[in-house]
Amino acid sequence: MVLVLALYCVSLSTISDVKDPEARLANDLALAVVRLARQLRTRRAESPVSLTQFSALATLAKEGAMTPGALALRERVRPPSMTRVIASLAEQGLVARSAHPVDGRQIVVSASPAGITLVEAERKASQEWLKAQLLRLDPDERQTLVTATDLMSAMVLEGA
C-alpha cells in the first residue's frame, strides 16, 4: 500500500511542483520510500510469502492474535482480501485460527511458531543491511531518522 502511494505521488511530479516546498518534500519522500522498499525487498531472498502476506504475518507476530476484520483494518485492506491472505498463510502453516474467546461466531488468527520464525528470519536479513547503512550516519542523522520514522508511522496509522 505504501509503495503504491509512493509511486502515485512520484507520478504526480511536475516541473511546477519543484517550487512548492511541500510538493517537493512529498515527492522526495515518496521516492525515498520506494527506493528503500526496493532495497529491502532484495534482501527477502526467495520468500514463500508475498509482501502483503508478510505484512499481515508480521503484524500478527508483533501485535498478537486478532480477528480477520481487525487485521484487515490494521493492514488497510478489504476483509475479503484479508480472508485470502489468511487462507494462504494457514495453508503454509504460518498462522493458526482459533475460536474467539467471547464471540463464538468469530475466529481469531495468530502467528504460528513457523510464522514467527519466518518473520524473524526476513527481518534479520533486512535489518543487517539497514543497520550497516545506519552505522554510516552520525548520531544526529540517526536521531533525525528516528523522528522521521515516528512521524511516518503516525501518518500511515492515522490514514493521513
Automatic annotation (TrEMBL):
Gene3D superfamilies documented for this protein: Winged helix-like DNA-binding domain superfamily/Winged helix DNA-binding domain
Q: Where is the HTH marR-type domain?
A: 22-154
Q: Which UniProt keywords apply?
A: DNA-binding, Transcription, Transcription regulation
Q: What is this protein called?
A: MarR family transcriptional regulator
Q: By its UniProt entry, which InterPro entries does this protein fall under?
A: HTH-type_Bedaq_tolerance, HTH_MarR-typ, Tscrpt_reg_MarR-type_CS, WH-like_DNA-bd_sf, WH_DNA-bd_sf
Please name the PANTHER family in this protein's record: CONSERVED PROTEIN, HTH-TYPE TRANSCRIPTIONAL REGULATOR RV0880
- Which Pfam families does the record match to this protein? MarR
Molecular function (GO) terms for this protein are: DNA binding; DNA-binding transcription factor activity
Q: Which domain of life is it from?
A: Bacteria
